[in-house]
Automatic annotation (TrEMBL):
<dbReference type="Pfam" id="PF12010">
    <property type="entry name" value="DUF3502"/>
</dbReference>
<dbReference type="Pfam" id="PF13416">
    <property type="entry name" value="SBP_bac_8"/>
</dbReference>
<feature type="domain" description="DUF3502">
    <location>
        <begin position="439"/>
        <end position="504"/>
    </location>
</feature>
<feature type="transmembrane region" description="Helical">
    <location>
        <begin position="5"/>
        <end position="23"/>
    </location>
</feature>
<dbReference type="InterPro" id="IPR006059">
    <property type="entry name" value="SBP"/>
</dbReference>
<keyword id="KW-1133">Transmembrane helix</keyword>
<dbReference type="InterPro" id="IPR050490">
    <property type="entry name" value="Bact_solute-bd_prot1"/>
</dbReference>
<keyword id="KW-0472">Membrane</keyword>
<keyword id="KW-0812">Transmembrane</keyword>
<dbReference type="InterPro" id="IPR022627">
    <property type="entry name" value="DUF3502"/>
</dbReference>
<protein>
    <submittedName>
        <fullName>ABC transporter substrate-binding protein</fullName>
    </submittedName>
</protein>
Length: 508
């Protein structure tokens, strides 16, 4: 109020107070009123109070910390974070091969972590378990730049029971994610092929490369990639509820189905059996995720499930093994529509046990506050870790810093040097011929059937995974596996999924 009185006094001295009071609203229609100024001062004061105390923010990340990431974290990054947010970032890395299990252990025992990442399907699971906290007030108070650079619809995917439970850190194209196939384009051309359009093309690619060098491995994922095959194996359009591959939605009919009881599941299982026999799926690597990724790191992988931008994300890894490597993603049955089940697959969550939830939100907001911050945490120090070459990022070190794909944002995106323009074009045009999935915004709350879900997943892992991977004969083992699944309570879980999905459809 004192500020406004001072302004009025000055205006009076200048002899135009009358004009100001009569027409002032037209001169500055956006000027805040006294109450708004008071609120702003209150918020600013609150932020200043929160930043007075130095904190250590503890965050869990998947993978392994590179030597440069460790050095960068302890020096340039934390120096900047101390200056801007009066905090130190402490990262705990868990290897990809057991990230899910060890993360679950850390969350279930209430260890004092503040922030962690996982894929979109896990948000509802961690919500049900009580591992995470709602973020609405934190986002409102400390997430101005997150809201500015991430579309509103992206946030809605993580709303459960009217509250926000995760930050959708990636804001980029997302249609058809995990339903494409990424191939070594340079090796494809080496055997006289130019593109992949069919399952038969993939098989021919593998066969031709084996004739040249049998050390090349065909296919990385055995627990994903069903949707990639569905595009050719059926005329219908399906999307999976989550990574567990138990339930799918018929996008044409809007109906939730039991995937493991469909003819489509049988087709996929039998196709994978044939891939095991051909050697495309290596039985020595199926149960060893670390060894499979080692094959990719060694440049021996011919193809794997795509993820819209995976050809860009994995390019450096491929070129570390082979400087001439090129990657590209293809959709089988490319004329079929792609579906957007979520605007992005990345989710950052603040733990229920966090001692610094405000600073966790401030840190995430800081990343998108400016292009300078964004480039620093993802690419490192310009001139030391990267440089700009014709408007593209040229990395000066092979060491991984923060995963670019976790925070890829349309407002700040810069393509890496050496990435062909057709790959960039593929990514930016990916959402063409796309539709919003019937699953968009749906979250299955497992609470009422959590015991049955646990039993069903235990049986699925024991009985169905070998069939899904192609290791066990569908004809020989399926009936026994399905009977065991039913006995574990599968029908109860399925009925609850259907009930919740039907209720969701009525509300949308």
């Amino acid at each position: 109020m004192h500020k406004k009185l001072a302004v009025i006094s000055i205006v009076a001295v200048l002899g135009i107070s009358l004009i100001y009071f009569i027409y002032g609203q037209f001169f500055n229609s956006d000027a805040p009123n006294t109450q708004e100024l008071g609120d702003a001062d209150s918020v600013d004061g609150q932020v200043k109070d929160e930043l007075e105390s130095f904190v250590t923010l503890k965050m869990i990340m998947p993978g392994d910390m590179s030597a440069r990431m460790g050095d960068f974290l302890e020096n340039e990054l934390n120096d900047r974070l101390k200056k801007d947010l009066n905090m130190k970032l402490e990262l705990t890395y868990i290897p990809w091969s057991n990230y899910s299990q060890k993360l679950e252990l850390a969350l279930s025992t209430g260890e004092d972590y503040d922030l962690f990442w996982y894929g979109a399907p896990f948000v509802s699971y961690y919500y049900t378990k009580g591992y995470i906290q709602p973020l609405d007030e934190l986002l409102e108070q400390h997430g101005e730049d997150l809201v500015k650079h991430i579309p509103e619809g992206n946030f809605k995917q993580y709303e459960i029971d009217g509250k926000l439970w995760a930050i959708p850190s990636q804001a980029f194209t997302s249609a058809g994610k995990f339903s494409s196939v990424m191939v070594r384009q340079d090796l494809l051309e080496k055997v006289g092929m130019s593109e992949i359009n069919t399952i038969a093309d993939l098989e021919q690619f593998f066969k031709s490369m084996q004739a040249i060098d049998p050390s090349y491995y065909g296919y990385l994922e055995t627990d994903r990639g069903h949707e990639m095959l569905w595009r050719e194996l059926t005329d219908r359009n399906y999307s999976s509820l989550d990574e567990r591959m138990l339930f799918i939605v018929d996008e044409d009919a809007g109906e939730m189905l039991s995937y493991v009881e469909t003819e489509l599941y049988k087709q996929v299982a039998q196709l994978r059996e044939s891939w095991v026999k051909q050697g495309i799926i290596d039985i020595n690597l199926v149960g060893n995720p670390a060894a499979k990724f080692d094959q990719e790191n060694a440049g021996k992988l011919l193809f794997r499930v795509g993820a819209v931008s995976r050809a860009m994300e994995n390019l450096q890894t491929a070129r570390n093994a082979d400087p001439n490597a090129r990657l590209r993603e293809y959709y089988l049955a490319k004329d079929k529509p792609k579906f957007i089940t979520t605007p992005g697959n990345e989710a950052f969550m603040i733990t229920a046990a966090s001692e610094n939830p405000e600073r966790a939100m401030m840190f995430m907001n800081w990343i998108l506050h400016s292009k300078e911050n964004y480039n620093l945490i993802i690419y490192g120090v310009e001139g030391k870790d990267y440089e700009l070459e014709d408007g593209k990022i040229k990395q000066l070190t092979n060491d991984q810093l923060m995963y670019e794909w976790m925070w890829r944002n349309k407002d700040y995106f810069t393509a890496p040097a050496g990435l062909e323009d057709d790959i960039i074009d593929d990514m930016l045009k990916n959402d063409e011929n796309s539709r919003i999935s019937k699953l968009f915004g749906f979250h299955f709350n497992e609470e009422s059937v959590k015991h049955e879900v646990a039993q069903v997943m235990a049986v699925y892992k024991e009985k169905f995974e070998p069939i899904s991977f192609g290791l066990a004969s569908y004809e020989e083992y399926y009936d026994d596996a399905l009977a065991a699944l039913k006995k574990a309570g599968f029908d109860i879980v399925f009925a609850e999924v259907q009930r919740q999905f039907q209720q969701f459809q009525l509300q949308h």
